[in-house]
Amino acid sequence: MDSIRVQGGTPLQGIVKIQGSKNAALPILAACLLTNGQTYLENVPKISDAYGMIHMLEELGCLVRWERGLLKVDSGEARLGVVSAKLAASMRSSIFLLGALLGRFRKAVLDYPGGCVIGKRPIDLHLKALGKMGVRFQEKEGRLEASADELRGADVELGFPSVGATENLILAAVAAKGRTTVKGAAREPEVQALCEFLKSCGAFIQGTGTNEIKIEGGKPLSGARFRIPADRIVAGTYLFTGFATGGNVFLEDAPVSHMEAVCHLAERMGASLVADQEGVYVQYPERAGELPFLRTDVYPGFPTDLQSIVLAVRCTGTGTTLIRETIFEDRFHVVDGLRNMGAQIRIVDGRSVLVNGVERLRGTRAEAMELRGGAALVAAAAGASGETILSGKQFIDRGYENICRDLRELGARIVSE
């Protein structure tokens, strides 16, 4: 099944449980390479990217299997090897194996990571930062080869708070000799989750959740049991989809403590939110209220991964909205699909779009070209008049366990084909 059929126009009503976080699970799975013993992970999302990381761990000699809802990872027999070029090319998250392999073996051989078409996403920050820890890099036959006679703790200052570079530094630093200080570190909840997992395995890390993280490396890491937090991006996707349809929903397990910017924006658009430890209840206006300007930013700012979703629902909101993307330079692939549905969107430049809200979009045929843009088209289709057939479902499956099932639980008329 590689397409999605949506009959739009049904208000969302009901309860949906939010899955485990993709962006937390993937670096934590890579971190299992650093442990001795068995690790049990709860709430791992059953998405194609997670299965891809599992397959790469298996190619490196780890034993991975599901046991009574837990994912068991035994890296006792892990070995240095080269993971599938096809897998690496399909997943940006394969880059996390760089820091983990260096920490375990002092060597790594990787094909350059792939992923969604949302900009250049260079790994220069990763290489420069790891170089300060004694890592040497060279390219051979299109592959990146990294090695270090000894991983040494270092003071590293990131010029940009890159989530991936911060996580790769942490993965290498817990196995390095001495102290590593990462200044300008990313503060995202997923970075915090990686630190908490490693601490549960015996690592010594200070400054979790701040822009300066200190790691005392070289401590042996044991296996542990750890629960992957709920996915704030999936929760935000379903939260904003309701603006296209109206109604009211309860997002069970939504990590509201890490969604302040998201919840604030939803309230600015006219939603009524009530949050507690179990999740968040959302009641929607008949039509999304005015939102003159939205700017994405690093955490705790508004997440880039939800920009496309907001763009989709602003197409039927009141007034005009200028959306400014500051993280990636090419994240407006969804615009053509939305225009085909009747949206009035003008691309100002590679970083900004101007949206004039219309009364309603119309169903059509559309194609998902990347993960979050695909979810945005689903959101638009849920509120459109008539039927939408969306191809490219495989992109959406990279981050959503079953978007059709989840939205059906909220009353949407949506099926996979």
- What strand line-up does the widest sheet have? 21-22-1-23
Q: Number of domains in the coordinates?
A: 2
Helix content: 25-40%
Which overall shape is indicated by the principal axes computed on the Cα atoms?
globular
Write the layout of secondary structure elements.
Blueprint: E1 3-7, E2 12-17, H1 22-31, E3 38-42, H2 48-59, E4 63-67, E5 70-74, H3 85-90, H4 96-105, E6 107-111, H5 124-131, E7 136-140, E8 143-147, E9 155-157, H6 163-173, E10 179-183, H7 189-200, E11 204-206, E12 212-216, E13 225-227, H8 232-245, E14 247-252, H9 260-268, E15 272-276, E16 279-283, E17 293-295, H10 307-314, E18 320-324, H11 335-340, E19 344-349, E20 352-356, E21 365-367, H12 371-383, E22 387-391, H13 393-396, H14 403-409, E23 413-416
Parallel strand pairs: 2-14, 3-13, 9-10, 17-18, 21-22
Antiparallel strand pairs: 1-22, 1-23, 3-5, 4-5, 6-8, 7-8, 10-12, 11-12, 14-16, 15-16, 18-20, 19-20
